[in-house]
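Here is one chain, start to finish.
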Amino acid sequence: MEPQKLPLKDIHLPDAIGWWPPAIGWWIIAVLIPLLCWFVFWLYKRVTRKTAVKTAKKILLTLKQDSSLDDKAKLAELSALMRRVAISQSPREETASLTGQTWLEYLDKSVQGSPFTQGPGKILADVHYKKSIAALDIAPVIKLCETWLKAQK
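Its structure:
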């Protein structure tokens, strides 16, 4: 037979594959990426929050045992430590600008009663600005700060 007379049909290509519905792999990726992002964010928040409190507890312990500092310097360091922890726990805009009575009220929110505004913790509000402090036992202030650190979540 001659090639021109053979009953052959032309080659027909299949239709192009549409973009919808996506393959199962794309569905899995679409679900896993947001879940993975949420998990990484949650893990980061959890690790950094606990790390700040753990580090603050260690610093407080070394501060408590440091005999080279006088009481005023210890109180100043303690006040700075409390502020650093508060800033790491709460949004910076809320805590960084607090001073005086509002700072003490913020600290009182985490503990029972009002030991910072009416108790031994009120010395933390203005210890940086006093030239000297009267002889006072700073052990209750340190204990109060330990209690406050334990109350942080």
